[in-house]
Amino acid sequence: MYNKNQIFAAPLAGISDKPFRQVLRMFAPEASLVTEMISCHSLVGRHKNCIRNFDDYSDEGNIGAQIFGAVPELMADAAQILESQGAKWVDINMGCPVPKVATRAGAGAFLMCDHRLAGQIINAVVNAVKIPVSVKTRLGWDAEHQNWRDLVHVAADNGASWVTLHGRTRAQLYTGVAVHPDVSDMPIPVIANGDIKNVDDVEKLSGLGYSGVMLGRALFGRPWVLGQITGIAKTPKNVGDIVLKHLDLVLDYYGKRAGVPMFRKHLAWYSAGMPSSSDFRIKINQITDAEELKSEILKFWGCVVNI
């Protein structure tokens, strides 16, 4: 098994915000967390409509901040900002498959097709900061172009400290079963990502040369799983207490007007599989008032906050 800081929580777009990371920290104080990806253009431009551009990471423990972009100089500037805000390392997104990033912006997964530019970006970021730099990527663009090995070597040659490998191609998006190839011969450490949900999944990677594991969608509605894999947490006795705590963090961070609708997706995940969860989701999707939402959570889980 891996030690606590070799267990990572993935950068999940629209999910891995500061409130979610605070909940993860309740169960896994020493795990390695990664922020949702941040545009280098937005960060350097200090766009005020993107609240995560101004996060203070100094109190978040072992946390990496992920950036995406296709301009080496801007990526370097963005990395310096993240370092000044307390990030412990910078992660470069070279795996995001969505069209607005991978095709229209020429970033994310597109960089699996342009290793020259990928190397320039890594080199620029590494030379701009004193903290470690990592890369998150995929197996390749599609089944016919699985060139992840070459990209790991590009990352190593340009000073990256490690690479996280999601076991799908860009064409797969998040469908199909993740494949975890043997990485024993890679020049820098590789972290496994994709379909890792529990200790059994982690143990299946034994002998393949991975230096750690990264959990993603397994954390939806079950943030304690990160702590379970590190061996220090159990499923909470009353999930409703965690839900209410998470909601309060979201409301504090985004405000009530934006926070209530934003939290609905989390409620859908937290309640999944529970009796009457379908009726509950229909009801909460009509609610816009924070106190009314809390009341429905209390009724559904029958909880008393004791955190």
Topology:
Layout: E1 7-9, H1 18-27, E2 32-34, E3 38-39, H2 40-44, E4 63-68, H3 72-84, E5 89-94, H4 99-102, H5 115-128, E6 133-138, H6 148-157, E7 162-166, E8 190-193, H7 199-203, E9 212-215, H8 225-230, H9 239-254, H10 256-271, H11 277-284, H12 290-301
Parallel strand pairs: 1-2, 1-9, 2-4, 3-4, 4-5, 5-6, 6-7, 7-8, 8-9
Helix pairs in contact: 1-9, 3-5, 5-6, 9-10, 9-12, 10-11
Radius of gyration: 19 Å
Beta-strand content bin:
5-15%
- Quaternary class: single chain
Distance between the termini: 30 Å
What is the CATH architecture term of the largest domain? Answer: Alpha-Beta Barrel
Spatial arrangement of strands, main beta sheet: 1-2-4-5-6-7-8-9
Q: What's the name of the CATH homologous superfamily of the largest domain?
A: Aldolase class I
Any idea of the CATH class of the largest domain?
Answer: Alpha Beta
**Shape assignment:** globular
User: What would the CATH topology of the largest domain be?
Assistant: TIM Barrel
Number of helices: 12
Q: Could you give the order of the helices and strands? A: EHEEHEHEHHEHEEHEHHHHH
Number of domains: 2
Structural class: alpha/beta
Describe this structure in words.
The protein folds into 2 domains: 4-230, Aldolase class I (TIM Barrel, Alpha-Beta Barrel), CATH 3.20.20; 239-301, Orthogonal Bundle (Non-ribosomal Peptide Synthetase Peptidyl Carrier Protein, Chain A). Helix content is 39%, strand content 13%. It has helices at 18-27, 40-44, 72-84, 99-102, 115-128, 148-157, 199-203, 225-230, 239-254, 256-271, 277-284, 290-301, and strands spanning 7-9, 32-34, 38-39, 63-68, 89-94, 133-138, 162-166, 190-193, 212-215. The chain has an 8-stranded parallel β-barrel. Helix 6 (148-157) links the parallel strand 6 and strand 7. Helix 3 packs parallel to helix 5 (115-128), helix 9 packs antiparallel against helix 12 (290-301) and helix 10 (256-271) runs antiparallel to helix 11 (277-284). The longest helix is centred in the C-terminal third of the chain and has 16 residues, at 239-254.
